[in-house]
Amino acid sequence: MATVYGKRLGKDGSIVQSEVFSINAIRTWYEELTKTFPQGAIVIQSTTSHSWPYPAYLFRRGTWSFIDLMFFFPHIPMTFMGETSGHAYRCNTVKRFQTQLERSQGEFHGKNGREAYVKSVLDAEDKFFKEGELQVEASVSCKETYEDFINSQDAFCREIGPEYGYDLRQIYLHYEHRRQLRRTIEPLKKGRMIPLLAEHEDGYHSHVLAYARVIKKEMAIIATNFNEFNVYFSINMKSLKYLFDEYDQESLEYCVIKINDHIGSAFDDYYSVYEILNGQIDTSLKVIGSRVMCYLR
Q1: Domain regions of the chain by residue span
Q2: Structure pTM?
Q3: Nearest-CA neighbor of 252 among 276, 229, 269, 268?
Q4: Which of 28, 58, 74, 178 has the fewest CB atoms within 10 Å, measured from its CB?
């Protein structure tokens, strides 16, 4: 997923710059993920882990779009302590397992005479270390002291650019709003996902992710902009035609769809079914912005 932002995240939490991939990387990631679970499985997707950096550290200004991805996708999002406060760094927790003798001597060595770093206690057991003979590997965003954590966090927040609207100290409001949308909009909680295309006059946007979440007679259309600039586009709705197969043609002729925009405009739009299914929804998104539009079928 990080490749959409031009980065690669290693299993050990290391970060390297990479080619910027299109949003197809996200679709592929999700499709491959769902293949590994049985039908009807409830998937909890964490935003990070103990050995990985916080989203703010990894995605920087892209953190806002990453949050939208986590809360609007079908899986249940799981956040970490400090993440919703905009933390890019964390203090080291208890990471050293020592025997009483090692503590008294102030030394720590593995079997080979050097300090032994491992990812977990289980990993240590695989390498024949016993409890008291290992040091758990920390995240690249960890700081040794609280003072270092505070100074680094303040500098990072200034670097992101709060004067341009990227204020990590206020990002908790973004988390709260997206969590509230997921709580109140049924398709965002239980709806199955149907990919859509965000098109422009010369093709489709490689960094605008559009999709639908559908349950029974209600649907949410979501679009997220991963570009570093504003975009104008049309959402092609033709792939949703099969959802209306149960209705006869006469019923569809008199059917009007009301669309509520939960993030963008403050007013509602009305479309006929034919306008929706044989045409497009024209809209726009700001930098790393999203739009959630819902309607009843």
Answers
A1: 96-137, 187-297
A2: 0.78
A3: 276
A4: 28
